[in-house]
Automatic annotation (TrEMBL):
Residues 159-317 form the Aminoacyl-transfer RNA synthetases class-II family profile domain. Monomer. It catalyses: tRNA(Phe) + L-phenylalanine + ATP = L-phenylalanyl-tRNA(Phe) + AMP + diphosphate + H(+). Residues 338-431 form the FDX-ACB domain. GO terms for molecular function: ATP binding; phenylalanine-tRNA ligase activity; tRNA binding. This is Phenylalanine--tRNA ligase, mitochondrial. Pfam families: FDX-ACB, tRNA-synt_2d. It is found in: Mitochondrion matrix. Keywords: Acetylation, Aminoacyl-tRNA synthetase, ATP-binding, Ligase, Mitochondrion, Nucleotide-binding, Protein biosynthesis, Transit peptide.
Length: 431
């Protein structure tokens, strides 16, 4: 059987993959007059309300805006790429970036404005988090296309958390982050100012407005070149890519870009030429355009080889410290974080008075003695004595084993060997 799924795709339905909602305990009855607070705003609840406290706890986290978060690094690279590719005549970035739009949208925004039929499966209560009959947590960033176009934006990116009632496993989590790109063009943007405008139209002259074939070709070339460029910017010049025809109600024609990584083809984004009716829904006339949508987690998982989508919500320093760098294009060889709790020991010492001390030498000692037991080591404090002018450093060492629980005694033995070696090799005095 072929159905249009909640992902807004046309795919074969495999019965064994259909969803269950067993992970969600839903407050089953909301009475008329009940209120629900979502993202700091109050809404009337009703029979459709199915947002759980667990889901509410994710609102406002904005992982994509958190400094040093992997999703923030990827977003940074995507935005920089779009900024540099499309410039105004004065040399400024053409695209505007909207990354803090409130996640509650209307069914009109999430579905109707995008031509998603009334009986479409993607509207099901079992697939979405409804605030009430008329509002829901956005299921995709496409929900903001129309409002931004209506406000007059022609080239924009929308970034936000999106919510779907998925099962939770290593590649599904009910909250993830999408980037939406929209580019609208006027006739002169499409054909260039020199052309005789009479010959070059945006729409075919007869029948309901249909894009002129030239328009489709010009937009398609720009769209595909843009997105292939994005993929090579992130995954490197040699990455293998292919285009696959797709179906979305709001674009036609539509495509997906697949990228071959570790010998496996993976769908990285959906895109297409915006249906004329979508523009009319936003009161935009005399323009044509393209749009794309991509999931930041998917890109991050492929780029950093992160095996589990749940890890993005981790506040464990063993995860976050792997991304603590300023250049978002830094290569990361991601190491899976141990499930076991860490043992944390500090070490404080006075530096030798004739200072030949280098922190890098200390780190080498920690690594060579601690080996794989050391997950992290970093400076937590330094202090210069006002009278003696001696300087002391305090470092924190996080010990954690990938496969087993470490005992404090075992850690203490390693720690004191580190203290001894630091004293003899670097001439420091343990405090
Ligand atoms: N909103 C789609 C989804 O979440 C992705 C998408 C596809 C966005 C095509 C677009 C587009 O803007 O043109 O599955």
């Amino acid at each position: 059987m072929v159905v249009v799924t909640r992902n807004f795709h046309l795919v074969k339905l495999i019965p064994s993959l259909s969803h269950t909602s067993r992970h969600f305990s839903v407050k089953s009855t909301y009475h008329p007059g009940d209120q629900i607070t979502v993202g700091g705003r109050q809404y009337p609840a009703d029979h459709m309300t199915n947002i759980t406290p667990h889901i509410l706890s994710h609102l406002g986290k904005n992982l994509h805006l958190q400094q040093y978060h992997p999703l923030c690094h990827i977003l940074d690279r995507i935005v920089k790429y779009m900024y540099s590719r499309y410039l105004t005549p004065r040399g400024n970035p053409l695209f505007s970036v909207h990354s803090q739009l409130h996640p509650v949208v209307t069914t009109q925004q999430n579905f109707d404005s995008l031509l998603i039929p009334k009986d479409h499966v993607s509207r099901k209560k079992s697939d979405n988090f409804y605030v009430n009959e008329e509002q829901l947590l956005r299921a995709h960033t496409s929900a903001h296309q129309c409002e931004l176009m209506r406000m007059g934006f022609d080239n924009f990116l929308v970034i936000g958390d999106v919510y779907r009632r998925d099962e939770i496993d290593s590649s599904h989590y009910p909250v993830f982050h999408q980037v939406e790109g929209v580019r609208l063009l006027t006739k002169s943007d499409v054909y260039g100012k020199q052309q005789d405008m009479k010959e070059y139209e945006l729409f075919t002259p007869e029948g309901p407005p249909t894009h002129h074939p030239h328009v489709i070709n010009i937009l398609k070339a720009d769209l595909k070149d843009c997105l292939q460029g994005l993929a090579t910017t992130l995954f490197g010049r040699d990455v293998e890519m292919r285009w696959v025809d797709a179906y979305f109600p709001f674009t036609h024609p539509s495509w997906e870009l697949e990228v071959k990584l570790n010998d496996q083809w993976t769908e990285m984004l959906g895109c297409g030429i915006i249906q004329h009716q979508v523009l009319l829904n936003a009161d935009v006339e005399e323009r044509v355009g393209w749009a794309f949508g991509l999931g930041l987690e998917r890109w991050a998982m492929k780029l950093y080889q992160i095996p589990d989508i749940r890890v993005f919500w981790s506040t464990d320093p063993g995860f976050l410290s792997q991304f603590a760098f300023d250049d978002p294009a830094t290569n990361v060889n991601f190491k899976v974080v141990s499930k076991h709790t860490p043992c944390i020991n500090d070490i404080s010492f006075w530096l030798p008075s004739v200072s030949s001390y280098e922190a890098a030498d200390f780190y080498d000692i920690v690594r060579s003695i601690g080996g794989n037991l050391v997950e992290q080591v970093y400076l937590v404090d330094q202090f210069t004595h006002p009278h003696t002018s001696r300087t002391s450093h305090c470092y924190r060492i996080v010990y954690r084993h990938m496969d087993r629980i470490l005992t404090q005694e075992e850690v203490n033995r390693v720690h004191s060997r580190i203290e001894q070696e630091t004293t003899t090799a670097l001439g420091v005095t343990i405090r």
